[in-house]
Design a protein that fits this description.
By secondary structure, the protein is α/β, with parallel strands linked by helices. It has a single domain, classed as Zn peptidases (Aminopeptidase, 3-Layer(aba) Sandwich), CATH 3.40.630.10. The chain has ten helices and ten strands. Keywords: Signal.
């Protein structure tokens, strides 16, 4: 009887312990693999491919073919422009930039002989990761829109193509670089205020610190025809920095002053530094003949080399 009583007490004690609210000691987790497999090294993550330090004109020309050959006229307020903006934003994001849109209103007017309604357009802005707009930086831009009647290969898929090729290049720039594709550069009337809507909006949205931080802006507009690269300023002062860059790049060039017919003028008229590459006359200007075949990849390469020399100067 004594033995039975002892056994019963042991069982009751065990049951009491099992019903306790106090947590017991943690149990070791069951192994998910054998010792041999757990000692195997973790698979390595491949590093991103290094960016080339030289300009790729093939990428630039492919953009010309896509924009002017597949999409065609890109009036700043219509569906084809939004399609082009989406495509270009995707290319910039794929290149590793932080991409944002800046939307703005555009009034009704006349686009090279065609009456157009009011609407909305947008700038596509690509900033390097970790970019601080209050710290010194450079801006390189090109307008994405066309007049209503033109596929816009030279004016201005050529400039956009150079910007997209730069996005995939190891810029080795002296300062951080913001890439901007402007909407609604093309005129809707005869005056300054009927032109350059996207770049004027971009400048207007800069706060005081960001304005002081812009150390240079370069507009690429009509850069794919000819054999000589035009480099221009909006004032009577010569574009000395671009002349030096062209010389370093070994590119034949011509310097122009008083050039105000592109987006750099929006910066200069607001007291910021701005220059332009491009403006060679050509037969397809603002008409249906502005097709990809007019654009010369070798000229795109010359322009790309000048831009890199300016960024690295």
């Amino acid at each position: 009887m004594a033995a039975r009583a002892t056994t019963s007490l042991v069982v009751l004690a065990a049951l009491a312990a099992g019903c306790s609210d106090e947590p017991g000691p943690p149990r070791p987790a069951a192994p998910t693999s054998s010792p041999a497999s757990s000692s195997a090294p973790a698979p390595s993550v491949p590093s991103p491919a290094p960016r080339p330090a030289t300009f790729d004109a093939t990428t630039a020309y492919a953009a010309v073919e896509h924009l002017a050959g597949r999409i065609g006229p890109r009036l700043a307020t219509d569906r084809s422009f939004r399609r082009a903006a989406d495509w270009a934003a995707g290319r910039l994001a794929d290149a590793g930039y932080d991409v944002r849109r800046q939307r703005f209103a555009v009034p009704a007017g006349e686009s090279w002989g065609v009456s157009v309604d009011a609407g909305r357009s947008q700038n596509v802005i690509a900033e390097p990761p970790g970019f601080d707009p209050a710290r010194p930086h450079l801006v390189v831009g090109a307008h994405l829109d066309t007049v209503a009647v033109s596929p816009g290969a030279e004016d201005n898929a050529s400039g956009v193509g150079v910007v997209l090729a730069l996005a995939g290049t190891d810029l080795q720039a002296r300062l951080p670089v913001v890439l901007v594709l402007f909407g609604a550069e093309e005129p809707r009337g005869p005056g300054d205020d009927d032109h350059h809507y996207g770049s004027r909006h971009y400048v207007a949205r800069l706060d005081e610190k960001a304005r002081r931080a812009v150390r240079g802006m370069l507009a690429l507009d009509r850069v794919g025809v000819g054999t000589v690269v035009p480099v221009g300023s909006a004032t009577a002062e010569p574009p000395t920095a671009l002349v030096r860059a062209a010389r370093r790049a070994g590119v034949e060039h011509v310097a122009e002053t008083g050039q105000r017919s592109s987006d750099h003028w929006s910066f200069v008229r607001a007291g910021l530094p701005g220059l332009r590459i491009g403006s060679t006359p050509y037969a397809g200007y603002h008409n249906a003949r502005d097709l990809p075949g007019l654009v010369d990849p070798e000229q795109l390469d010359r322009v790309g080399r000048v831009v890199l020399a300016w960024l690295r100067g």
